[in-house]
Amino acid sequence: IAAAVRETFEEAGLMIGKPDPEPHKSAPVNWRPFFETGMAPCFENLNYVARAVTPPWRPMRFNARFFMVDHCHVSGELGGDGELLDLTYVPIADTKDLELPLITTRVLGMVEELARNPPDPTTPRTIAFFRHNGNFHDLIPE
Questions:
Q1: How many CA atoms lie within 13 A of 110 on its CB side?
Q2: What are phi and psi of 89, to 5 degrees?
Q3: pLDDT truncated to tens, each residue of the chain (142 aa)?
C-alpha cells in the first residue's frame, strides 16, 4: 500500500495524505519529496479492489494490486516526474472508448460498481484475483 501511495505522488503528482503530524522528523530517502510538501501518507481511505498477475509469456511481468480512493482524500496537481505521459482525468464511463488492456477495463468496471454501491467497510469482502490462463482471465476470489 505504501508503494501505491508513494508512486501515485511520484508518477502522477497526486498525494493521498494528510498534514504531517511530525514535520521535523527525518523521512526515508524515497519518501522525502512527499514529506517535503508538509504532508504524510494516509492509508485509511484506500480501498483494495483487485490483484492481477501478468501472463508468463509477456515480456514485462507484474503482480499488480489495484486500489481506489475518493477524490476528496487526494491533493496535488496532476503532473508527476515524467515517467507517465499525457496524464489527464477521464470519467470512468468515457474509458469504454479508450484502447486499454483488458484487465484495466475489467478493474475499472469493478471500481465503477464499488463507487455506485460502496461496500460496508466493517464487513470483510472478497478481493478479485485475475490470472490469465492462456485464453482469458480467470477470476479467483482472495
A1: 20
A2: -80, 135
A3: 999 999 999 999 999 999 999 988 899 999 999 999 999 999 999 999 999 888 777 777 778 899 999 999 999 999 888 888 889 999 999 999 999 988 899 999 999 999 999 988 888 888 888 887 666 566 565 6
- Residue located via cell numbers 498477475: 53
Contact in structure between 135 and 57 (CB atoms under 8 Å) = no
Give the cell for residue 30.
524515497
User: First vs last Cα of the chain: how many Å apart?
Assistant: 17
Segments making up each domain of the chain, as ranges: 43-141
Residue 66, C-alpha cell as written in the block: 489495484
Question: What's the whole-model pTM score?
Answer: 0.84
